[in-house]
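task queued by scheduler; priority normal; single chain, no ligands, no partner chains; default sampling; output format set to C-alpha cells
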Amino acid sequence: MIKNLTKLQNELVCPKGQFNSFAKYAFRNTSDILMTVKPLLLKYNLQMVITDDLVQVGQNVYIKATVKITDEDGNSETVSAFAREGTDGKRALDPSQQTGSCSTYARRYALCALFAISDTSLDPDSDEYHTKTTQEKEKPRKITKAFLKEHGAERIGAEEVEKLKTACLNAGESMSLERALRACNRSSVTDISWVQYVSLMSQLGAVA
C-alpha cells in the first residue's frame, strides 16, 4: 500500500483548463494533469514514471501507457491504459504525429485512473459527449459571416474536404484540386482554412 496516495487523490483538483472554441467544450489534457500532480508528488515524497510500449493485437497496434508511482518505502502502484493507432488515414496525421497523439491520449487515461480524476459526461472522451456531438454534426452547418469571423482561420473538417474534392472533380480542367491548393498556398486539402474553402467553393459555383 502506497503511503499518502489516498491523501493525494483527495487533495488533487484538476479542472478542465483547455477550451475548444469551435466545438464549445472544456477539456483537460495530459499537461494539465502533470502540472497539478507534480507539487503533490513532492509534498508526499512520491516518485512517478510514465512509459510507453507498443502492443499488437491482431492487425491493430496499440500504444500502452503505464504510470508507476512509488513511495519512500519502495511500495508501488501501476496503472496502464491503451490507445489504438488508426489505419484508415482519416485523421490527416503523419505516422509520428499519430503515435504521439496516441501516447498522449493513453497517458491521460492512465493518469486519470491512477489519481481518481473523474471522467464526467462533459468530458470530450465520454460516450455521452460523442453521442451529443455526433447528433450535432448531423445538422447542416451554416457558414455565416459570424462563423467565418470566429473560425475562418481554422482548418475545414472531413465533410468539407470531400465536398471540395468533389467540386474540383466536377470542375474538370477549369479548377483542379492541385490548382486549388496552389491558389491557397497549401500542400494538402486538409490544411485549407474555412475562409479559403468558402472562396474556392464560390469560384467553383458549388454550395459550401
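post-processing summary
- Strands lie at 18-20, 25-27, 47-57, 60-70, 76-84.
- The first helix runs from residue 5 to 11.
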